Amino acid sequence: MHIDWHGYFTWFGGNEEEALDFQKNMYVVPMLTWPEMEQTAPTPNTQIFTINQFSEKKEAAFQWIMASVSLEYQ
After folding, report:
1. CA distance readout (Å), 38 to 4, 30, 45
2. pLDDT (tens digit per residue) in 12-49
3. Are 26 and 10 in contact (CB under 8 A)?
4. Is 73 a member of any domain?
5. How far, in Å, CA of 4 to CA of 29, rounded?
6. Is position 33 within any domain?
7. Among 12, 29, 61, 70, who pairs with 19 as Cys (CB 3.0-4.6 Å)?
8. Domain of 62?
9. CA angle at 19 for the pair 16 and 23, rounded to the nearest 5°
10. Interatomic CA distance for residues 66 and 61, integer angstroms
């Protein structure tokens, strides 16, 4: 999932053929809303960190993620 602004649908950094293929394989759905929290929305371009199951350095990756989301770093 990628949450972004509406202009993302027409943008692509490749050539025209790559852009058409990119757009052809894109699915668009509305973002969830909460009636009791009308002014709440996800931040566009939110970064998601994951650790690949095949990583040989899972602990180091986890420590990097934790440092990246720490209050001191933010």
Report:
1. 18, 15, 20
2. 666 778 777 777 877 777 777 778 887 777 666 667 78
3. no
4. no
5. 12
6. yes
7. 12
8. 6-68
9. 140
10. 9
